[in-house]
Amino acid sequence: MKEPFLMTSSTKKHGAIRVVLAEDQVMFLGALAALLDIEEDIIVVGQTRNGKEALDAIVREKPDVLIADIEMAEMSGLELAAELKRRRIPTRTIILTTFPRTGYLRRALESGASGYLLKDRPAKELADAVRRVNMGLRVIDPELAVEAWFETDPLTERERQTLSLAGQGLPSSAIAKQLGISEGTVRNHLSEAIQKLGASNRIDAARIARNKGWL
């Protein structure tokens, strides 16, 4: 059985904020850990490359803060944040991503994340965000925060589920079987989603929703 990719800092910082990182790009993962470990009051206790490894590391290390990418294998950053919320694990989550999409921001907050920042922000801002989130505050990229007030996700959860599966190329029969609903209901959900998004078909609707961060 393959061992989780987990590294801990050799430097012991008494009373430091304990952080686990979840990022599938290895070079960025290492650089991020090195930048945060420079801070006197922050210690990286785990570096992981997918959501499953991150969850295992959180259970084992009990960090104060998780910094996670959105798109990862095994479990996305949003799914990971939701799982921590479901289990009532007190680790606070910061989503760090390249996607400046208000849809992702809204879903991150709904999943229980305390922060949402873009990867192109200065390292110092991320360190400050870790401190603020650890204090129980919420940290959101300022530009996205403004945009979020003016753009709302029109899809229901069931429309989102059917559209996501349709975007993967599944026919209505397969979607119905997977979701436990009738093919007619699937077609109704897809029709509503297509109309709401002003799309030409289900694939186009899935593309629009994905670009908005709603899938």
At a glance:
The protein is built from ten helices and six strands.
Could you walk me through the main structural features you see in this protein, from its secondary elements to its overall organization?
By secondary structure, the chain is α/β, with parallel strands linked by helices. It is built from ten helices and six strands. It has helices at 26-37, 51-61, 77-87, 102-110, 123-134, 142-148, 157-167, 172-179, 183-197, 202-212; strands at 17-22, 42-48, 65-68, 92-97, 115-118, 139-140. Strands 2-1-3-4-5-6 form a six-stranded parallel sheet, with helices on both faces. The longest helix has 15 residues, at 183-197. The two termini are 33 Å apart.
CA distance, first residue to last residue: 33 Å
Number of helices: 10
> What is the count of distinct domains?
2
Helix content: 40-55%
Q: Report mean pLDDT, rounded to a whole number.
A: 86
Q: Based on Cα principal axes, name the global outline.
A: elongated
Keywords:
2 domains, alpha/beta, elongated, Arc Repressor Mutant, subunit A, disordered N terminus, 50% helix, Rossmann fold, 215 residues, six-stranded parallel sheet, 10 helices
What is the topological layout?
Blueprint: E1 17-22, H1 26-37, E2 42-48, H2 51-61, E3 65-68, H3 77-87, E4 92-97, H4 102-110, E5 115-118, H5 123-134, E6 139-140, H6 142-148, H7 157-167, H8 172-179, H9 183-197, H10 202-212
